[in-house]
């Protein structure tokens, strides 16, 4: 299908402005990202945005040229998830580095936290709780050689993947996502590389944990929908990867750290409070003790 005039115009515009920032390879992309993400928090935001767009638009000697109105217009165009920041995937789409590397950002979105945990378990082959360099290399190979349905794949990206390219991409992705510099990815670092499309619990405003002001009291129907969402196999319990997926979503919803240590401690805490029969799983009435107001705990 031929590209629309709007699409052609957008591509022409991108080709024109990206020439102001050289980014042809994976190494270039790493250099550009580290340059503009000055505080290293994983986003280009606040004053970093002015710096980035002034150079992108060729006005770096006059950053005042990027007015608040112009900045809002740029963000409307490029901030696809509307969070007020530019993340790696959005930067990759603006700068369009080499096609095979760009494909890593186009094919890695998952449907749910359960699917994330399935991927984690698959590639954490030694069960160390980390994705190490060799395991990450396997992940990248699979992602590029077997892209997800619906991913945009060009002729350049379809060319055979060489071992040299694979090693280079692995090293670059480690540098991009290994926030603590230990040479491996822990679960919250991998979550940035392999983002989940939707956190189901984000549908509910207010805290699900707090007992004070701002507490969200789930209705029985809402609770049943939550349980049904995370009980993927429909066996009446949330267990294993389902439980980890639920905990990961819950901690993100509550704006708490979701690293390996936090997931384990929260998992132990919830099981200690709710797992009445000590089978290491959560049945519906057990999870209700945690999520529903006390008077309704035994009526789910």
Strands, helices and their partners?
Blueprint: H1 5-18, H2 26-36, H3 47-56, H4 68-78, H5 88-95, H6 99-106, H7 113-123, E1 131-132, H8 133-145, H9 163-177, E2 184-185, H10 187-193, H11 220-230, E3 237-238, H12 240-253, H13 260-274, E4 282-283, H14 284-291
Antiparallel strand pairs: 1-2, 3-4
Features:
300 residues, mainly alpha, two-stranded antiparallel ribbon, 14 helices, 52% helix
Structure description:
The protein is mainly alpha-helical and 300 residues long. It is built from 14 helices and 4 strands. It is globular.
Short structural summary:
The protein is mainly alpha-helical. Helices cover 52% and strands 3% of the residues. The chain is built from 14 helices and 4 strands.
Task: Determine the fraction of residues in helical runs and give it as a percent range.
Answer: 40-55%
Query: Order of strands in the sheet with the most strands?
Result: 1-2
> What is the oligomer described by this structure?
single chain
Number of helices: 14
Structural class: mainly alpha
């Amino acid at each position: 299908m031929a590209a629309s005039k709007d699409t052609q115009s957008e591509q022409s515009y991108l080709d024109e402005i990206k020439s102001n920032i050289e980014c042809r390879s994976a190494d270039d992309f790493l250099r550009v990202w580290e340059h503009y993400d000055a505080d290293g928090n994983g986003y280009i935001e606040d004053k970093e945005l002015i710096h980035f767009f002034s150079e992108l638009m060729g006005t770096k000697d006059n950053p005042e040229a990027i007015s608040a109105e112009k900045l809002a217009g740029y963000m409307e165009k490029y901030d696809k998830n509307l969070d007020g920041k530019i993340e790696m995937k959005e930067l990759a789409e603006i700068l369009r580095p080499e096609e095979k590397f760009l494909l890593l950002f186009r094919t890695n979105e998952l449907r749910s936290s359960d699917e994330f945990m399935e991927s984690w378990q698959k590639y954490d082959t030694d069960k160390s709780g980390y994705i190490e360099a060799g395991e990450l290399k396997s992940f990248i190979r699979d992602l590029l050689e077997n892209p997800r349905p619906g991913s945009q794949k060009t002729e350049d990206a379809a060319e055979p993947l060489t071992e040299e390219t694979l090693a280079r991409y692995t090293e670059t992705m480690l540098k991009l996502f290994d926030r603590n510099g230990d040479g491996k990815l822990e679960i919250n670092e991998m979550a940035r590389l392999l983002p989940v499309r939707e956190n189901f619990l984000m549908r509910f405003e207010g805290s699900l944990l707090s007992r004070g002001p701002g507490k969200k009291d789930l209705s029985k129907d809402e609770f049943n929908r939550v349980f049904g969402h995370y009980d993927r196999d429909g066996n009446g319990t949330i267990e294993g990867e389902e439980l980890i997926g639920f905990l990961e979503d819950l901690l993100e919803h509550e704006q708490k750290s979701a690293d390996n240590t936090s997931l384990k401690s929260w998992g132990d805490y919830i099981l200690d409070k709710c797992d009445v029969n000590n089978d290491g799983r959560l049945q519906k009435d057990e999870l209700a003790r945690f999520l529903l107001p006390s008077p309704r705990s035994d009526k789910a």
